[in-house]
Write a structure and sequence with these properties.
Layout: E1 2-11, E2 14-24, E3 28-34, H1 40-47, E4 55-60, E5 63-64, H2 70-73, E6 77-80, H3 91-97, H4 111-124, H5 139-153, E7 157-161, H6 169-184, E8 188-192, H7 196-202, E9 205-210, E10 213-218, H8 220-226, H9 228-233, E11 236-241, E12 248-253
Parallel strand pairs: 3-8, 3-9, 6-7, 7-8
Antiparallel strand pairs: 1-2, 1-4, 4-5, 9-10, 11-12
The structure holds adenosine-5'-triphosphate.
GO molecular function: ATP binding; ATP hydrolysis activity
Keywords: ATP-binding, Cell membrane, Ion transport, Iron, Iron transport, Membrane, Nucleotide-binding, Transport
InterPro entries: AAA+_ATPase, ABC_transporter-like_ATP-bd, P-loop_NTPase, Siderophore_ABC-ATPase
Amino acid sequence: MIKLKDITAGYNGIEVIKNINISFEKGSITSIIGKNGCGKTTLLKTASKLLKPFSGDIILNGESIYNIPEKKLARKVSFLPQMRNAPNISVYNLVMHGRFPYLGFPRIPQAEDRAMVERAMKKLGIKKYKDKKLRELSGGERQKVYIGMVLAQDTDYIFLDEPTTYLDINHQLEILDIIKELKRMGKAVIMVIHDLNSALSISDKVCLMDRGEIVIFDSPKAVYSSKEIERVFQVKCEEVNMDKKGQSQYIFSI
Ligand SMILES: Nc1ncnc2c1ncn2[C@@H]1O[C@H](COP(=O)(O)OP(=O)(O)OP(=O)(O)O)[C@@H](O)[C@H]1O
């Protein structure tokens, strides 16, 4: 389990997220939702040790992440940011970057590392681009390569910042399927997502934020029933049972 305890964090001394107490468990999907600028990315960055909080602690399996060596932490926690450039390297090499926390010095991949990279590329259907440069790919293809890198990193906790934004519907559904697969593999996936229907329909837990604080952190049903989504986003939200499995979908209107 990864647990954020009384976290307050922000930039240049200005608090952006306040009194955050939340934990994420393996084998589950958590969606973090909230209006633009409410602090979702700040929460992810803090949880994955990219941003040092002003106060509070983050506990991974009983140990503060600030006491865990970088390389060891990178074998447990990965973070895929929203804004990414396209470095001038091949797809294969980028996916291999996911194995860096496992390599010694000099960084020479072993058979196991190469096998992990092959498996990740196969799972995402990106083997065909293996030798292409990242910048030769479309945004959706690139996104899959970055997710391949995270897959190769093979961490228990995976933080994803808007993994489906800017993707066409086919790529969106593919990425959501991969996220469900990661859950089946026993991983904790924690993602910031603006598509509230996806958040409510595929997550085990939904964390709704407003102005830097957690409004509610509960099951999708409980979050829906609380009407807090309607209050925070100023929308109407209706649950409909759309498929045979009884999986609810959610329709939003003004
Ligand atoms: N590097 C930074 N330096 C200073 N302020 C920042 C920085 N990054 C974010 N902020 C500020 O912190 C606040 C929260 O930003 P954050 O990116 O966490 O929000 P968000 O909920 O993820 O937003 P969005 O949905 O628009 O991506 C914003 O007011 C933003 O301007």
